[in-house]
Design goal:
Blueprint: H1 3-20, H2 26-33, H3 37-61, H4 67-87, H5 91-120, H6 125-154, H7 156-177, H8 190-196, H9 200-221, H10 223-230, H11 238-259, H12 264-285, H13 289-317, H14 325-352, H15 356-378
GO molecular function: transmembrane transporter activity
Main location: membrane
Membrane topology: Multi-pass membrane protein
């Protein structure tokens, strides 16, 4: 695997840290900028919205740019808005930086997926995607807790400075390592790629990815109150449980990276029902602390193994849209990341308790199985030969 793919993973790690780190910083931001905690919480939802809108928009706008230039522009904008966010005293400006930063993040991830899978070759799209998605899971394991520690020690602004600092060496490495576009390279045809992305089979795969990711973030978002109010853990245990989920996520992405290029269907056929069974078991046994801890690890692994394999499947099924396929995969991930917490929060708000997001996660995975996994698994899939485009 070319070293530049791991450099792209480092940049995604910084961006993933920015996306999730506010979970531990919202109260401090609210107090410092004199807004309510719910108002400060909109910093997270606006980031997700910016990712959903930004991925296809930036992918299309940057279609004629050399990929190295596009990556550098997106990452430079991302660094700049974090510097502005670190020094501003205005909540409105901070909110604007979250939107711009999310759009830049979405553009980087879309172009980064296209670049990584192109450099890895036609038989290693899954391994390349796993490296980039691994940056997101490492952000959950290491970046988010470190951001919380920095916030506790030196204030929430220090976490913003840290994200900017980690991104700078990644930008320099991209400048040196991503090969320039050779002269005479054909410009991608946006209309042809968009037509390729309208194929029904690809749309179903994108829907499955959104549903599975929605289930993941439905529970992950409310994991702290779940384990403290239902499982009986003290607040001091919350970082350990979050780390367990993150470690499981990294393990799942690693498994997907090894198998999704050659045998994606066995991962989905076995992993999908196991994921559903895990959410149901978790919902039924959440009050048993040791079982809850084990299932946090297991569900993190299964969620990201299945989710990352679906994203790999998207990239193969979008083989005729190499420049825009990554943007649609990015949208699917972030639609799930936005809808899942909303549904989990609605269940809690309806008085169903902190265990209810687990039932919602199970429902979303059951819907995914009903919509596509079971019928797809019954037929022979040409992803067994990943060098060939998958027909739709």
């Amino acid at each position: 695997m070319p070293i530049v793919i791991y450099i792209l993973g480092l940049a995604v790690f910084a961006q993933g840290t920015s996306e999730f780190m506010l979970a531990g910083l919202i109260p401090d931001i609210a107090a410092d900028l004199r807004v309510s905690v719910p108002a400060a919480g909109t910093l997270t939802s606006t980031f997700a919205a910016g990712m959903i809108v930004g991925a296809p928009l930036m992918a299309v706008l940057s279609l004629r740019w050399p990929r190295r230039s596009a990556l550098l522009v997106f990452l430079t904008v991302f660094v700049a808005v974090h510097v502005v966010g670190a020094v501003t005293g205005s909540f409105g400006i901070l909110l604007a930086t979250r939107v711009v930063g999310a759009v830049a993040n979405a553009g980087f991830l879309a172009v980064g997926l296209a670049t990584a899978t192109g450099l890895a070759g036609p038989h290693a799209k899954g391994r390349a995607a796993a490296v980039l998605l691994g940056g997101v899971t490492l952000a959950c394991v290491a970046g988010v807790p470190v951001g919380a520690v920095l916030g506790n020690l030196w204030g929430w602004r220090s976490a913003y400075w840290a994200v900017a600092a980690v991104s700078v060496p990644a930008a320099l490495a991209i400048l040196r390592s991503v090969p320039p576009t050779p002269p005479g390279t054909p410009v991608p045809d946006a209309r042809r790629e968009l037509r390729a992305l309208r194929r029904p089979r690809l749309a179903v795969t994108l829907l499955l990815a959104a549903l599975v990711n929605g289930a993941t973030f439905c529970t992950f978002t409310y994991l702290a109150p779940l384990v403290t109010e239902v499982s009986g853990y003290g607040r001091a245990w919350v970082p350990a449980l979050l780390a367990a989920f993150g470690l499981g996520s990294f393990a799942g992405v690693t498994v997907a990276g090894r198998l999704s290029d050659s045998r994606p269907m066995p991962v989905l056929v076995a992993g999908g029902p196991a994921l559903l069974a895990g959410w149901l078991l978790f919902a039924a046994t959440a009050a048993i602390a040791p079982v809850a801890f084990l299932l946090v690890l297991v569900q993190g692994t299964l969620s990201f193994a299945v989710g990352a394999t679906l994203i790999t499947l998207v990239l193969y099924r979008a083989a005729d849209a190499p420049s825009l396929g990554g943007s649609f995969a990015t949208v699917a991930l972030n639609v799930g990341a936005a809808i899942g917490p909303l549904l989990g929060g609605a269940a809690i708000g309806a008085g169903l308790g902190y265990r209810s997001p687990l039932w919602v996660s199970a429902l979303l995975v059951a819907l995914a199985l009903t919509v596509g996994l079971a019928p797809t698994a019954r037929g022979r899939d040409r992803t067994d030969d990943p060098g060939q485009p998958i027909p739709s």
